[in-house]
């Protein structure tokens, strides 16, 4: 007689990914902390568009269209063998164009 051994296994549920984001108060504190910092634009861009650190660090000027108010995400900064390198984004959905507020 055959028995289904799969019935005796325990399949763990998928990992629950909890997204970590800043509260509005934390974002205000961060903006106040970088008020006079040379990287302020990087922090503001990340907060405004909800970008991951690797996506922010992968941006180049060719990815930014100030006239249209669009940022194109094409690559990310990641570590390979302990060294920072530019590489592909994790998924096809990560490769995207984001429209921000148009400058006045």
Explain this structure to me?
There is one protein chain. This protein has helices at residues 24-33, 40-49, 53-57, and strands at 64-65, 70-73, 76-80, 83-87, 96-99. It is of the alpha+beta class and 104 residues long. The protein has one domain (21-99). The strands form two sheets. A three-stranded antiparallel β-sheet has the order 1-2-5, with no helix packed on it. Strands 3-4 form a two-stranded antiparallel sheet. A hairpin with a 4-residue loop joins strand 1 and strand 2. The model has no long low-confidence stretch (mean pLDDT 88).
Q: In this structure, how is the largest beta sheet organized? A: 3 strands, antiparallel
User: What is the CA-based Rg, rounded?
Assistant: 20 Å
Strand content: 15-25%
**Helicity, in percent?**
10-25%
Quaternary organisation: single chain
Summarize this entry quickly.
This protein is an alpha+beta fold and 104 residues long. It has three helices and five strands, in the order H-H-H-E-E-E-E-E.
Which key phrases capture this entry?
24% helix, 104 residues, two-stranded antiparallel ribbon, 3-stranded antiparallel beta sheet, alpha+beta
Provide the fold topology.
Layout: H1 24-33, H2 40-49, H3 53-57, E1 64-65, E2 70-73, E3 76-80, E4 83-87, E5 96-99
Antiparallel strand pairs: 1-2, 2-5, 3-4
């Amino acid at each position: 007689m055959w028995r289904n051994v799969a019935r005796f296994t325990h399949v763990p549920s998928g990992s629950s990914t909890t997204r970590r984001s800043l509260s509005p108060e934390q974002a205000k504190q961060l903006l106040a902390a970088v008020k006079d910092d040379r990287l302020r634009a990087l922090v503001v861009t990340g907060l405004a568009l909800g970008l991951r650190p690797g996506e922010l660090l992968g941006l180049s000027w060719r990815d930014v269209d100030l006239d249209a108010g669009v940022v194109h995400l094409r690559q990310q900064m990641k570590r390979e063998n302990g060294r920072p390198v530019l590489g592909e984004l994790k998924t096809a959905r990560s490769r995207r164009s984001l429209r921000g507020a148009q400058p006045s």
